[in-house]
Amino acid sequence: CLLLARAMGKLQSKISFHTTKYRADGSVGQTGPAGASQQHSPAHTDAVASVAALKPDLCVSGGRDKSVAVSSWRSGAALRRFIGHEREVTKVTSALDSNRVFSASRDKTVMMWELQGSSGPSQHFPGHDLVVTGLAVSPDASQLCTGSRDNTVCKWDTETGECLGRAAISRNLVTHLCWVPGEPYVIQTSEDKTTRVWDSRELQVAHTFPAKQHIQTCCDVSQDGRYCLSCSSGSAGHGAEATV
């Protein structure tokens, strides 16, 4: 991990001075219009808080304007807009190739939207006492895990909206959740600087990685389920690192 952090630090230094050399498509040294990024019309009227893949050509986003938008990242067109939250949308997610979109909000709730349905929510998940900051859906979109700054993680039935379990850990201010592909496990990062692995079947912690020096802000899992990536915040020139 130390070698990774050092390598990323060197890469970050290079990027800051030679930004045109590093492209998402792997091209090197492109300049001019051919290598320029595309800019589309805004999908939201205020800051965007979260973006997630929906289908190969679609993405879902949520923002401070309290709305959830489904957009084509190729054309930039906003295809659907869902409105129902009373406060800022903090997280959005979906099961890939599913028609279900999920959003979490500072209004302490989570909502489910149907891509082909009405503009209103098809399911409502109340139950947290503070802003919802983590959101992960099972691959078949039948179950949902949510996390909050109230130190709890909850599991829900997406069909009925029933809360199937609730677990609380002191000082576990959840920052992000992601579901391990093909497994009943959910990865969670926290402001207590740890990364936890939850067994969703009993909603119990299966493993806790050693605490880092800084708040862990986000996590993701490789498609084969073997590797977990977590990212941290930083201050005064320290931290802001990724760990595999």
From TrEMBL:
Coiled coil stretches, renumbered: none
Alphabetical UniProt keywords: Repeat, WD repeat
WD repeat coordinates: 82-116, 125-166, 174-208
Keyword Repeat: yes
Pfam families reported in the protein's UniProt record: WD40 (PF00400)
Alphabetical list of PANTHER family matching this protein: SPERMATID WD-REPEAT PROTEIN (PTHR19869), WD REPEAT-CONTAINING PROTEIN 31 (PTHR19869:SF1)
This protein's name: WDR31 protein
Organism: Tichodroma muraria
